[in-house]
Amino acid sequence: MKRKKVVTHSKKNVSRTSISSLNSHKFYFTRLLLKHARILKLKERRSVQHNLVKQAKERPDHIAVKFNESTLTFAELYEQASAVKDQLLEMELPSRIAVQPTNQLNSVIIMHAIVLAHIEMVLVNTHLTESEVKRQLDSIGVDVIITDNSYTSLSCIMPETLFKGMAERSAVTTYNPEDIMSIMFTSGTTGVQKAVPHTFLNHVASAERCKISFPFDRDSKWLLALPLYHISGLSVLVRSMMDGFTIVLFDKFDAEAINQSIAEDAITHISLVPQTLEWLLDAGLERHQLEGLLIGGAKLDDRTLEECLRRDLPVYTSFGMTETASQFITASPADMVNHPNSVGPVTDDIKVAAPLNGAGEILVRGDNVMKGYLYPEGANDTAFSGDYFMTGDVGHIKNGHLYVLDRRKDLIISGGENIYPSEIEQLILSIPDISACSVVGIPDAKWGEVPALVYESESDLDDKITKTLEEIAKYKRPVLYKRIKHLHRTSNSKVSRHRVKEWLLDEIQ
């Protein structure tokens, strides 16, 4: 498919792109109203059929999940998840247990089984140490975990022990929309991990919202390489159950294998973070049957975006977090042409609080937003402003579109001046040989705090960096540079400013 030509115009003439954008936004808001109507109906009900049950009845032979050479139809997935559910119920477990899922078929089955058993599912990062896992679970009163690890401080259930027995066909197959379905901890990029509960309603509303701005349907094929314990992974499972599309699951990120799958499996949708998108581009990513690449987790730099446009890749950038059960707002390819660097059109459930020079904290509300943290105690005292959730991100609204500047906690205040690390990072990433970077604040006796830069590169690029930084005001320029082979990242491949800052402070002491 050829990329649409952007037609420049005078005040008397409107371009085809502008008309398309206007029509697109009218369609977007119409679908948003219909979504609200569906959610209102759901909220009025207290017993709703599980979507897996629905798909098993309506599309029994359609493939639900493909992993390597193995597949599960919706009927097979429901049958096996029901059998595991029976095993869980026979064990008389607490009403809330943890699971450490790997991106494999057995984990998908177990996750569905926990939901069918009406047990609150706590998703735990597989890369954590035993003490970290114990600390998280203690904070929300959980001591049972399904895991491949043999933790001595917790009651562990090995996944393979759950795959025996047959399903009871008379089992309950409904849920209450207001019940908690899952609990996960925030990624900790700021160093503070909070326990976020998601109700069934949160997940359904999130999937409905996603479908409006990032269209998919029952014939879609969604490649999933993001971890299942992360909201970006879990949300794809939820969308698949609601619409009945196929998930092509990868247990790890392998750029060449994923590009091959995109070509051979007719992949239509894929969820990525900027770093994984760059790896795919480096490995020769082409469009094939792709209808949408959903990018979240961090800002997409101009260099990568330009390369995507050159290859006619349908990239959608988004803004969201664990607390909003995945992305909250999404910029379409048309938005990215007409409103560069925005994350999409705002609605009445998004606002910027107390804007200073047009910028302020981004507040959101909606049925996909969690009702409140389970931990730490007191976290909810500062998490909400009326019925709006305070995201902790700073942004501004221009021409009806939202622009995210940075995390409020990452803001560097130097001599009374506000410095946004992402502005400097975007500039540094324009240097071709720098693959990633992070700007953090370090203490300074005179100014209180000053910016410092840590970057990934095969060679020393300090001189190029200094020259490039001449484009911004002196107070924004990092006072020191550190080259590193690999920046500290979260399990979802996002650069962790918190960990980078810890490492840097230790280095310069």
TrEMBL record:
Pathway: Quinol/quinone metabolism; 1,4-dihydroxy-2-naphthoate biosynthesis; 1,4-dihydroxy-2-naphthoate from chorismate: step 5/7; Quinol/quinone metabolism; menaquinone biosynthesis. Pfam families: AMP-binding (PF00501), AMP-binding_C (PF13193). Its EC number is 6.2.1.26. It catalyses: 2-succinylbenzoate + ATP + CoA = 2-succinylbenzoyl-CoA + AMP + diphosphate. Residues 54-374 form the AMP-dependent synthetase/ligase domain. One of its GO terms (molecular function) is ATP binding. InterPro entries: AMP-bd_C (IPR025110), AMP-bd_C_sf (IPR045851), AMP-dep_synth/lig_dom (IPR000873), ANL_N_sf (IPR042099), MenE (IPR010192). Keywords: ATP-binding, Ligase, Menaquinone biosynthesis, Nucleotide-binding. The keyword Nucleotide-binding applies. Residues 423-494 form the AMP-binding enzyme C-terminal domain. It is an enzyme of class 6 (ligase). One of its GO terms (biological process) is fatty acid metabolic process. SUPFAM superfamilies: Acetyl-CoA synthetase-like (SSF56801). Coiled coil: none annotated. The keyword ATP-binding applies. HAMAP family: MenE. NCBIfam families: menE (TIGR01923). Belongs to the ATP-dependent AMP-binding enzyme family. MenE subfamily. Converts 2-succinylbenzoate (OSB) to 2-succinylbenzoyl-CoA (OSB-CoA). This is 2-succinylbenzoate--CoA ligase. It comes from Macrococcus brunensis.
